[in-house]
Amino acid sequence: MRLKYSMKLRTIVETHNLGVIYKASDFDEVEVWNYNISRPSLQFVGFYDYFDKERIQITGKAEAAYLRTLDEKKREEVIDALFAQKIPALVVCHRVVPDAMMVDAARRHDVTLLTTDLETSEFVAQVLNTLRTHLADRRTEHGVLVQVHGEGLLIQGESGIGKSEVALELVKRGHRLVADDAVELRRMGRTRLMGSAPKMIRYLMELRGLGIIDVRRIYGVGAVLPVCDVDLVVKFVRWEEGADYDRLGLNEETANFLGVNVPQVTIPVAPARNLAIILEVAAMNHREKKLGHNTAKDLMERHDQGIDNGWDGWD
């Protein structure tokens, strides 16, 4: 069963520095469950089919201009009908001052009325980002998350295989640690996965034989990152003699988290292998693939073209 997350209306108000025109009696208890928001339009002409009253409602200069075209009685009916839905809150943007009729309706139906100086589109973008981050589906995975050359690498593998040691070497080489041991993953869209560390262990790392260290205190704030996208999963496995490992890079593996498929590579771990360098190359190679350059496929195409042209393998 998937958990449903919420965010306090008070937190949204404080995060975006919103002005409070009227504070409902349940202001401190109201929780927002829906990460979408709405700008009432059809509702102003009385169409409330498919209206989601769990969403925060937002108006701006366009809605204010439309309401001014209505006679006083009709305008009162339209505003009253909107507040009667018991929405979480109405935010009036673009420095529009709510008139007395709107304030009275907010008081009558005990619905919080807020304002912001931001343009409507700018505020919509900001609040959507806030809600989608806080209300996103999430789960915690065992592993280490580091950002290498701008790519988020989620390192997974059995306990004791060396994930934290490799992450520490990457930090020494100028890359950044996001999470060690436990990685909280959030689905930010159909194709985007974001990772962070649980607050309790943020920027901490466990090294067997040493114990817990604070990476930020030892290496500085430039060595850590609170959150990053998960671009590539790196699966560590113990080297087995005779096992079949991908030598060309043509196999395209994926790992699925919360319904999001993330590219994956499997790296065999053996003595004398410099895993930090391998992960740096993996990050750069993945970035090249995203730009449309796949060295393994290019090699195979050249090989096939050479065979077709009578190449004998020596030219």
Give the low-pLDDT segments. none
| Average pLDDT for all residues | 92
If helices are DSSP runs of H or I spanning 4 or more residues, what is the number of helices? Answer: 9
- Sequence of secondary-structure elements: EHEEEEHHEHEHEEHEEEEHEEEEHH
Number of strands: 17
Query: Which strand-content bin applies to the residues?
Result: 25-35%
Q: Roughly how much helix do the residues carry, as a percent range?
A: 25-40%
**Quick one: overall form?**
elongated
How would you describe the overall organization of this protein?
The protein is of the alpha/beta class and 315 residues long. It has nine helices and 17 strands. The strands form four sheets. An eight-stranded mixed β-sheet has the order 14-11-10-8-9-15-17-16. A five-stranded mixed β-sheet has the order 2-7-6-5-4. α3 packs parallel to α4 and α6 crosses α8. The mean pLDDT is 92.
SSE layout and pairings?
Layout: E1 7-8, H1 9-15, E2 19-22, E3 31-32, E4 37-38, E5 56-59, H2 61-68, H3 72-83, E6 89-92, H4 100-109, E7 112-115, H5 120-134, E8 138-148, E9 151-156, H6 163-172, E10 176-187, E11 193-196, E12 204-207, E13 211-214, H7 215-219, E14 227-229, E15 232-238, E16 253-257, E17 260-269, H8 275-290, H9 295-308
Helix pairs in contact: 3-4, 6-8
Q: Could you provide a short overview of the structure?
A:
The chain is of the alpha/beta class. It has nine helices and 17 strands.
Which characteristics define this entry?
9 helices; 315 residues; 8-stranded mixed beta sheet; single chain; alpha/beta
